[in-house]
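Hi everyone,

Forwarding the result from last night's run.
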Amino acid sequence: MPGVAGVDSLGSPELSFYHHFQITLPREYPQNLAQIKIINKTPLYHPRIAGVGGKACYTVNGEVDRILTDIVFNVLMRPETVRPPGQYKDADWGLDSSKMKWYIKYGPEKLYTLLKEEWGKKQNQQEVRKKVQFMD
């Protein structure tokens, strides 16, 4: 699925179709949800996700299947998951205010539409394969 890997010198998004996250569950799971760690392993230009090897600013409120689904919506940068200040009450600037400013300037709905369109093109070009790999 497409996600913004970076921004070029003109402020246009550079897309990537490969994303890798590491999710670490605490031994006490599903109790201690606050201890779940989500680490980004590939470039993703997102205001709520730190750079490669950095954490995701994400509140875990459910089971692992919900976490995986929500990550998809975060990669696609749905406005309601990014929650830009000025559009959502009590929203903050995320982990990187410069990325959030770019996101707001580019246009949340415009970006979401672009990513959905690119996803649709990819679905029409090749066989859809789902792959979730669990690692020790």
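The chain is about 30% helix and 10% strand.

Cheers,
N.
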